[in-house]
Recover the amino acids of this structure.
């Protein structure tokens, strides 16, 4: 028996809506995790029970994991549960093109050596750096303003970037600065095997911001977010108005270890 069109639509629509809602929740978690159900509900305009139901399903599917929020004031009682994407969740945002790209990089490394992969990574990042340079130049010489401009540029390119201050304001301490976070990385799959991409990106951030930045955590090494520390106490140079040429070989940054022991990608 044929199902009337309007009846079929009625049956399919709830499933499609559920799928779109789930994808929206995953995207927000990737951008803002660790994040609570209450915050998700407020941001997405959904009811708290609906969000909790999706979170339970996502957790059962292994796409998200509970993680204590890095900062914030706790009230009395048990703290609210916060969530981040799991490794499987990040992989779910990847496409078959990621696997193809990794295979191509392996071939390049076999045929021409690891240095060819490094040059390719630097060339790719140089293209991003060239587009970002104008935005950061317009932001002026303030490190904080330039970080804000970089966050905006990275977010437009799908990196789900954000920033927050760390340390004591107006302090000369080397631990005072800004944490630049990237909740999603379009080349995460390849960067697990080829850290040259992370090295090139870190060097580009240093040139764009005019300070020596340090990579503290990476998605490629299993952290839930890429974290880069940007010091605000001692700028090393005047930020460059234009990026270094793609053919140059930038100084490699010294790997920094996170509190959990992870190093640069």
């Amino acid at each position: 028996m044929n199902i009337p069109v309007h009846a079929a639509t009625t049956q399919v629509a709830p499933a499609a809506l559920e799928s779109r809602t789930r994808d929206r929740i995953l995207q927000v978690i990737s951008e803002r995790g660790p994040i609570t159900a209450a915050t998700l509900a407020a941001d997405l305009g959904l009811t708290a029970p609906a969000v909790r139901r999706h979170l339970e399903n996502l957790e059962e599917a292994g796409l998200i994991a509970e993680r204590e929020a890095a900062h914030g004031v706790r009230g009395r009682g048990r703290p609210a549960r916060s969530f981040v994407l799991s490794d499987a969740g990040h992989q779910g945002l990847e496409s078959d093109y990621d696997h193809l790209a990794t295979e191509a990089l392996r071939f390049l490394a076999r045929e021409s050596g690891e240095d060819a992969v490094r040059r390719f990574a630097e060339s790719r990042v140089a293209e991003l750096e060239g587009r970002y340079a104008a935005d950061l130049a317009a932001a002026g010489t303030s490190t904080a303003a330039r970080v804000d401009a970089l966050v905006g540029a990275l977010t437009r390119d799908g990196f789900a970037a954000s920033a927050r201050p760390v340390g004591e304001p107006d302090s000369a301490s080397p631990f005072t600065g800004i944490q630049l976070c990237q909740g999603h990385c379009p080349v995460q799959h390849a960067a697990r095997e080829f850290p040259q991409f992370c090295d090139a990106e870190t060097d580009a951030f240093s040139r764009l911001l005019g300070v020596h930045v340090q990579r503290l955590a990476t998605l490629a090494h299993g952290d839930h977010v890429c974290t880069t520390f940007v010091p605000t106490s001692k700028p090393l140079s005047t930020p460059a108005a234009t990026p270094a040429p793609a053919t140059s070989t930038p100084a490699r940054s010294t790997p920094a270890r996170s509190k959990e022991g992870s190093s640069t990608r």
In short: Confidence is low (pLDDT under 50) at residues 1-13, 241-265. The two ends are 57 Å apart (CA to CA). Residues 96-231 form a domain with the Muramoyl-pentapeptide Carboxypeptidase; domain 2 fold (CATH 3.30.1380).
